[in-house]
Specification:
ATP hydrolysis activity; 6-stranded mixed beta sheet; globular; ATP binding; ABC_AA/LPS_Transport; Rossmann fold; alpha/beta; 4-stranded antiparallel beta sheet; binds adenosine-5'-triphosphate; 253 residues; 10 strands; 2 domains
Length: 253
């Protein structure tokens, strides 16, 4: 049987602290899988391990039947795993389109000397990049902000643009780090719709870290709760939210 995505006994230590401790789960293609847990539970660290910003101490990460544990962050992106960050990392003075083209750039296969000579391949890639950016702006209804500098847009729109930028690389697995952080209720509802749209319409598998339980319940097929780096519960959103250990951890018991 083929594996879409799997984390097997993943562990990372910072000095004496085991921030992610023997974590295992798998995600089927097409799922929305969410990681929850109290502050400091290891959620962002797990994301950083998967996108290879951190190197695991032990364990394996499998993506589409390939062991990607030792690949570089760039190679991971090239395999089709894209991510957003908790805090928006866009170029404020550049337009929406330009920010999306920067996202696309990581996909470029041409080298610098080719860039300079402007060979046909570069031109073809540029056209493909622009087309991908236009398509993503169509799907996420961002065309009206196409030429507007990011800095002058509301925070909720910027968060959607950050997701759009990750989509421009054509990922098979999209990692969203707290998509609702900084958003009001209305913007969070809109974000839930976008996540469902990306999942249903574009067929992209989503792995997300999220605090807002209304968003989690609305979009997640399955939920993993972490605490002190360890797995506490895994199941549907309802099962996990009602798990006694999860209830106790959130009450600080
Ligand atoms: N680079 C690092 N060096 C040392 N300790 C780290 C590092 N990154 C994370 N930690 C520690 O690992 C633990 C898990 O942190 P992490 O940021 O993954 O938690 P989290 O679940 O994402 O929390 P939050 O919800 O607050 O974002 C924390 O105790 C944190 O201090």
């Amino acid at each position: 049987m083929s594996t879409f995505f799997k984390v097997d006994k993943l562990t990372v230590k910072f000095g004496g602290l085991t921030a992610v401790d023997d974590v295992s789960f798998d995600i089927a293609e097409g799922e929305v899988f969410t990681i929850i847990g109290p502050n400091g539970a290891g959620k962002t660290t797990l994301f950083n391990l998967i996108s290879r910003l951190y190197t695991p101490y032990a364990g394996h990460i499998i993506f589409r039947d390939e062991d990607v544990t030792r690949l570089s962050a760039q190679q991971i992106a090239g395999r089709g795993i894209a991510r957003t960050f908790q805090n928006i990392e866009l170029f404020e003075s550049a337009s929406t389109l330009d920010n999306l083209l920067v996202g696309r750039h990581r996909h470029s296969t041409t080298s610098t000397w080719q860039d300079i000579l402007r060979l046909r391949k570069v031109r073809d890639e540029e056209i493909a990049h622009r087309r991908a950016a236009e398509e993503v702006m169509d799907v996420l209804r961002l065309q009206r902000y196409r030429d507007t500098p990011i800095g002058s847009l509301p925070y909720g729109v910027r968060k959607v643009i950050e997701v759009a930028r990750a989509l421009c690389v054509g990922p098979k697995l999209l990692l969203l780090d707290e998509p609702s952080s900084g958003l009001n209720v209305e913007e969070t509802n809109a974000m839930a719709e976008w996540i469902l749209e990306i999942n249903n319409r574009l067929g992209i598998t989503v792995l997300m870290v999220e605090h807002d339980m209304s968003l989690v319940s609305r979009v997640s097929d399955r939920v993993l709760a972490l605490n002190y780096g360890r797995m506490m519960a895994l199941g549907t959103s309802d099962e996990v939210q009602n798990h006694p250990d999860v209830v106790a951890a959130y009450l600080g018991a």
